[in-house]
């Protein structure tokens, strides 16, 4: 899909820019840009008005609302000879993921042990910070929306402290509440690899909330040193 957007140039050399969608001020590195040239202005840089995260959300939302058009475009794209190498590479990656699933089915004991260690990974988060994080997400799994009460009834335990970036920090900047099923399903995958339009539990609204918390709102809690409620 191609998104038609109004682009503009930044001649001031500013390093920060306000996203027109999420209304957050971010580094210009968080915006897609394109180098342009004109006889009157010389070289200049165009920046999209919305950040990379919001650009992804726009694409996902469009695909969700236009599945038939998306499939037709994909069929047309895959029929072009120049795209065959990329298509084969994607198919190879898909088969490799299939082998990973086969290994998981044949090594359930090892998988359970890995998941147990992952769940027990120590977070440098106080109880007060954890409660604030859960409150931000309405005491629900940030991925699928399962409530704390539902999770307690089904699994007899609290929501999990999910490491969004598997090898990332062990503090509030990398933590969201997750149900047991989502936590295990995501495993060591990056969020964009797992939580996308192909995931039945995916929600654009929930992904927006996750990005807003990780990029901005957890900082507000830390600065105020009080429970952050929305």
TrEMBL record:
Stretches assigned to the HNH domain: 141-188
GO molecular function, one term: zinc ion binding
One matching Pfam family: HNH
Full protein name: HNH domain-containing protein
């Amino acid at each position: 899909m191609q998104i038609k957007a109004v682009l503009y140039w930044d001649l001031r050399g500013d390093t920060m820019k306000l996203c027109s969608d999420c209304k957050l001020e971010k580094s210009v590195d968080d915006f897609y840009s394109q180098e342009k040239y004109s006889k009157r202005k010389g070289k200049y840089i165009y920046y999209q008005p919305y950040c990379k995260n919001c650009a992804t959300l726009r694409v996902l939302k469009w695909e969700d609302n236009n599945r038939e058009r998306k499939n037709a475009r994909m069929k047309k794209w895959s029929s072009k000879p120049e795209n065959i190498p990329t298509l084969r590479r994607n198919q190879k990656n898909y088969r490799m993921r299939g082998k990973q699933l086969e290994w998981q089915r044949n090594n359930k004991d090892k998988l359970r042990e890995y998941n147990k260690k992952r769940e027990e990974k120590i977070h440098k988060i106080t109880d007060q910070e954890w409660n604030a994080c859960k409150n931000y997400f309405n005491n629900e799994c940030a991925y699928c929306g399962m409530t704390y009460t539902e999770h307690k009834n089904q699994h007899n335990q609290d929501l999990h402290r999910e490491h969004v970036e598997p090898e990332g920090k062990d503090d509030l900047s990398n933590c969201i509440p997750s149900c047991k099923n989502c936590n295990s399903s995501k495993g060591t995958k990056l969020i964009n690899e797992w939580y996308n339009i192909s995931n039945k539990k995916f929600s654009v609204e929930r992904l927006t909330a996750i990005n807003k918390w990780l990029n901005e709102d957890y900082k507000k809690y830390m600065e105020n040193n009080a429970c952050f409620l929305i």
